[in-house]
């Protein structure tokens, strides 16, 4: 590892700010002075490609243009606006945080790192990004792109977080900390990429220890991949005599909490799916006919894979009073938020009807 001297820090700082001024992508949240908009963009962009985020960001601000409208919204509307973006806990935390900001900060996002860090769902990166970009505070914002850039500048195989923070503090300018944080992230996203970095175009290659050593492809060292378990789920597409499909609300806590899905039951292998679907159907009504196989849907989360064995079945629903976790929707009703895999199951069912 080669430490960064004061002279090198000044050269990197100036070169990256020039790069950012000349080459930053024209993203809709850049240049805004609205802390709320900065906050939304930073939460949305975590672990998500920028190209995917842009339309979601623009629709979100049309629906929830400020803290008050977000805080006052129903959770279903918030999750529907997030539908398809993944990592739904981020949307629920945004909603919770907006209510706290409304109630404790008069609807204005707090302007200090510590106060931002105390909001639900706001970690070190988000607090540093919002504090520096929206409020001009000198705080580092270290995401995956920044970690990779710094690991190569230092020629370190696995830089620990304290070293990354120390290095960023040394690099951050007093007058443009938000722009500098964004410049580092922009470099990592467009030039200092995980594979085949474009070193010939890099504005700081002459100050990069990994480039000098020829080790940039090995920095940072890849983390060992954990095995991803496969979860198999028998999924029941239950219809009533009017053709409506039944959805159930997932528990508020846990994976995809608060969203809606077709009822399902974990199974081992496809053989048990048919009997599981019958059990599910009998819980909700009187079964009419036999299950009809629709096919399978597969979806990969960050920590698990799921395979859904889908069967359609008609039932006569039992009468229930005050049931808030079950909904019967016509085939063209898109009012409830569904995870991406559940949307594919719905499409599979519609195609087979």
Explain how this protein is built.
It is built from 14 helices and seven strands. With 353 residues, the protein is α+β, with helices and mostly antiparallel strands. It folds into two domains: 213 residues, Hypothetical protein, domain 2 (Endonuclease III, domain 1); 123 residues, Nucleoside Triphosphate Pyrophosphohydrolase, CATH 3.90.79. The strands form two sheets. Strands 4-1-6-5 form a four-stranded mixed sheet. Strands 3-2-7 form a three-stranded antiparallel sheet, with no helix packed on it. The protein is elongated.
Please tag this protein with its features.
353 residues; alpha+beta; Endonuclease III, domain 1; Nucleoside Triphosphate Pyrophosphohydrolase; 2 domains; four-stranded mixed β-sheet; three-stranded antiparallel β-sheet; elongated
CA-based gyration radius: 24 Å
Helical stretch tally? 14
β-strand number: 7
CATH fold assignment of the largest domain? Endonuclease III, domain 1
- Number of separate structural domains: 2
Short description:
The chain has 353 residues and is of the alpha+beta class. 44% of the residues lie in helices and 15% in strands.
């Amino acid at each position: 590892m080669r430490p960064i001297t004061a002279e090198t820090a000044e050269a990197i700082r100036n070169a990256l700010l020039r790069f950012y001024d000349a080459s930053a992508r024209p993203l809709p949240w850049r240049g805004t002075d609205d802390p709320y908009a900065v906050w939304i963009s930073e939460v949305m962009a975590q672990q998500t490609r920028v190209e995917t985020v842009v339309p979601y960001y623009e629709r979100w601000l049309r629906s929830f243009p400020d803290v008050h409208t977000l805080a006052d919204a129903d959770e279903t509307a918030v999750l529907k606006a997030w539908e398809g973006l993944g990592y739904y806990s981020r949307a629920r935390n945004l909603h919770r945080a907006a209510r706290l900001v409304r109630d404790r900060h008069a609807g204005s996002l707090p302007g200090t790192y510590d106060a931002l860090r105390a909001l639900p769902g706001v970690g070190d990166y988000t607090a540093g990004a919002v504090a520096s970009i929206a409020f001009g505070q000198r705080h580092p914002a270290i995401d995956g792109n920044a970690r990779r850039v710094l690991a190569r500048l230092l020629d370190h195989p696995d830089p620990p977080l304290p070293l990354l923070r120390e290095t960023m503090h040394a690099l951050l300018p007093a007058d443009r900390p938000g722009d500098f944080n964004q410049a580092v992230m922009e470099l990592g996203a467009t030039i200092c990429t995980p594979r085949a970095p474009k070193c010939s175009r890099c504005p700081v290659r002459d100050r990069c220890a990994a480039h000098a050593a020829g080790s940039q492809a090995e920095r940072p060292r890849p983390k060992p991949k954990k095995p991803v378990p496969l979860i198999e789920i028998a999924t029941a597409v239950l219809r009533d005599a009017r053709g409506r499909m039944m959805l159930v609300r997932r528990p508020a806590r846990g994976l995809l909490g608060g969203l809606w899905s077709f009822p399902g039951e974990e199974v081992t292998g496809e053989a048990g799916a048919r009997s599981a679907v019958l059990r599910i159907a009998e819980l909700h009504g009187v079964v009419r006919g036999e299950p009809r196989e629709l096919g399978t849907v597969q979806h990969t989360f960050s920590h698990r894979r799921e395979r859904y064995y889908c069967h359609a079945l008609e039932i006569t629903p039992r009468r229930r009073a005050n049931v808030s976790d079950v909904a019967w929707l016509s085939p063209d009703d898109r009012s409830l938020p569904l995870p991406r895999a559940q949307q594919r199951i719905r499409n599979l069912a519609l195609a087979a009807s």
